[in-house]
Structures are given as structure tokens and as C-alpha cells.
Amino acid sequence: MAMPAAHFSHPKHELKFREYHLSRECDLCGEKLTGSGYSCHHRLCDFDLHEECARYPETLRSFFAHPWHDLTLSSRTDGRRSTCELCREEKVPAGVFLYRCAPCGFAVHPRCSRLPQTARSEELHPDHGLSLTAMPSAGTTCAACREPCGVWVYRCGLCDVDLHIDCLHGARSSRGKNGKGSSSALGEALGVKVVESLVEVAGEGVASMLFQ
């Protein structure tokens, strides 16, 4: 819980730790906020922040999906919407924070930046581990929901099996006809209980990294 009063996402005023008894919306990720978090007590700000979101670093360096430039956690102020390059959630509302590369236009959700690069699923593909991979060609379908895959998938090269990110992490019930899951469903699916029951993360220390 020990966090500095100042935070880069809201530099104008101090943020104070508090318990939320009524649901609010986190101003960093745009999702529901309950339980503990941080709030600006300035009357005109109404700024709230998940306790978990307060831990995201301002800058990502050498991110595996875009290693060429640093990514900065920031929001758009021009009213335009963005798309997360990993989960392919389109029309991320203006004001929601994403890790962005200004020169390239690359953007990724903070939560998606913590997706494990390798994972296992005893339910969907128990034989081998899967790697988070950028697919070079179109026409690939997800082995779980049979819908077309986006750019990034979890892939087993030995078996030629591909899985949507949100199918692997338990958000399949939110998928539409176009194979895109909802932001809130994927966020909830990446909670500790779901990941512990569905996904075995390969590599020492990666599981703890997801929820630091």
C-alpha cells in the first residue's frame, strides 16, 4: 500500500489512499474500481486510481512486442480513440491510459503489457506450452472459439494450434461474432483466481510479475 502521494498520471495534486464503498471508475484503465485505491480530493478533479494501476511504471523499455522504442503510459487528449495492438480491443476511449510509442503509433493496454510470453492451458491445449506470437498471415482461426485470430495469438508451433489471448485467459464468453473480447472481461479474466486455475505460466517469477 506504500505509494508516493504524487503520481505521474495526475501530477497536479496529491493522491490519497482510500477505501471505495461505492463503485467508481479508474481514470487510468477506465474499468470499475471497488475496494482500495487512490483518490484526488480536489473538488474539481474527481480522479480515482486502482491500487494495482498505481504500480504501473511510466515507461516500458524493450517491450517484447515493440522493442524498437520506449513506451510511455499516457492518455490521448485529442478526442481520438486507440486500439490495443495485443488484444485488438478497438475504440479504446480517449482519456484511458495506454502504453504508447509516439513515433510508431503502437499502443497497448497496461494489463496487456503484463501478459506472459509463454503459458500453458490444461483445458485448451494440455500437451505443450504456447508462445505469444505475432501471426504473419491472415486466415488463422482460434482452436477454442473457431473465430478468426487477430495479429497476436498464443501459438503451439508443434501442433499448429492458435488461441486468442482472451480465449486462453478465460474471457471467451465475451467474444462477439468478430472474435473480439471485451476490455472488462479480459481484465477480470487476468485476475489471480482465473489465471491460477486456467493458466500455468512458464518461467520462474513470471506469475508473480503479472500482479505486482
Blueprint (SSEs and pairs):
Elements: E1 16-25, E2 32-39, E3 48-50, E4 59-60, E5 71-74, E6 98-100, E7 107-108, E8 118-121, E9 125-134, E10 152-156, E11 161-163, H1 165-168, H2 183-189, H3 192-198, E12 199-201, H4 206-210
Antiparallel strand pairs: 1-2, 2-3, 4-5, 5-6, 6-7, 8-9, 8-12, 9-10, 10-11
SS-based class: alpha+beta
Order of helices and strands: EEEEEEEEEEEHHHEH
- Compute the separation of the termini in Å: 12 Å
Strand content: 25-35%
How many distinct helices?
A: 4
Radius of gyration, Cα only, in angstroms? 18 Å
Which regions have little confidence, pLDDT < 50, spanning 5+ residues?
A: 172-185, 188-212
Which descriptor suits the 3D outline? elongated
The proportion of residues forming helix, as a percent range, comes to: 10-25%
Structural key phrases:
four-stranded antiparallel beta sheet; single chain; five-stranded antiparallel beta sheet; 212 residues; disordered C terminus
Structural overview:
The protein is an alpha+beta fold and 212 residues long. The chain has 4 helices and 12 strands, in the order βββββββββββαααβα. It has a 5-stranded antiparallel β-sheet with strand order 11-10-9-8-12. Strand 8 and strand 9 (125-134) form a beta hairpin. It is elongated, with a radius of gyration of 18 Å. The model is unreliable at 172-185 and 188-212 (pLDDT under 50).
